[in-house]
Design goal:
This protein has 7 helices and 5 strands; from the N terminus they run H-H-E-H-E-H-H-E-E-H-E-H. By secondary structure, the protein is α/β, with parallel strands linked by helices. Strands 1-5-4-2-3 form a 5-stranded parallel β-sheet. The radius of gyration is 17 Å and the shape is globular.
Length: about 210
């Protein structure tokens, strides 16, 4: 079914520069609903304490992840088969990467650990990915395998990335086929939450009846 953009709500982060200028974005970034997590350390390159945020209600997946008692042996299977929540953040192709960065900041401020987040781009590489790839693919993928920080991957190689609780897709360019493949892959890699940043009409056209 087509995705419906959520009510915008701006929570600007003050912890570092954005990867892409906000010009060209069609709407501000709404707050994701990642579920409660223990306070996470600051991201590398983003010094300073995280801003406190009010507690949020446990999501169904978080509740299913609680260790079951002897009377509920089927709970782990239900958690493994849970479908991730999907959120759409309206943005132009030029503003999608910036919207994805804001979504990542909000996720970390809400308590998500950096290693729980994977970001996939369909157009230009995220500056972090471009920088790390300049040192070679071995070093780049070693950071993915370490799993202790947000990982940024181009759609063309994202199939090598392991599943993470949260996947953010920036539809910042590329063909319709590339966007469709990236969204399908992201849906299969997202454990609890899939956030898609891009033009709603284009995304709904790509998704059709759903992922």
């Amino acid at each position: 079914m087509p995705l419906i953009p959520e009510e915008p709500q701006i929570h600007e982060s003050a912890q570092g520069p954005r990867a892409t200028p906000a010009s060209g974005r069609t709407a501000p970034t709404p707050r994701p609903v990642p579920g409660p997590r223990p306070a996470a350390p600051s991201r590398p390159g983003r010094p300073g304490p995280l801003r406190p945020v009010p507690p949020v209600q446990r999501t169904p997946r978080d509740a299913a992840a609680v260790k079951p008692g002897p009377s509920s042996p089927a709970a782990p299977a239900a958690s493994a088969s849970a479908t991730p929540q999907i959120q759409l953040i309206p943005a132009s192709a030029q503003g999608a990467l910036d919207a994805a960065e804001e979504a990542v900041d909000l996720l970390l401020e809400s308590g998500r650990a950096p290693g729980e987040v994977l970001v996939i781009t369909t157009g230009d590489l995220h500056p972090w990915a471009a920088h790390e790839l300049s040192f070679g693919e071995a070093s780049y993928w070693a950071q993915h395998d370490a799993g202790d920080d947000v990982f940024y991957a181009d759609a063309a190689v994202a199939d090598r990335a392991a599943s993470r609780p949260v996947v953010v897709v920036a539809v910042n360019g590329g063909s319709e086929a590339t966007a469709a493949a990236a969204l399908s892959l992201a849906h299969s890699r997202a454990g609890a939450l899939l956030i898609v940043c891009g033009d709603p009409q284009r995304i709904n056209a790509v998704l059709g009846a759903g992922v």
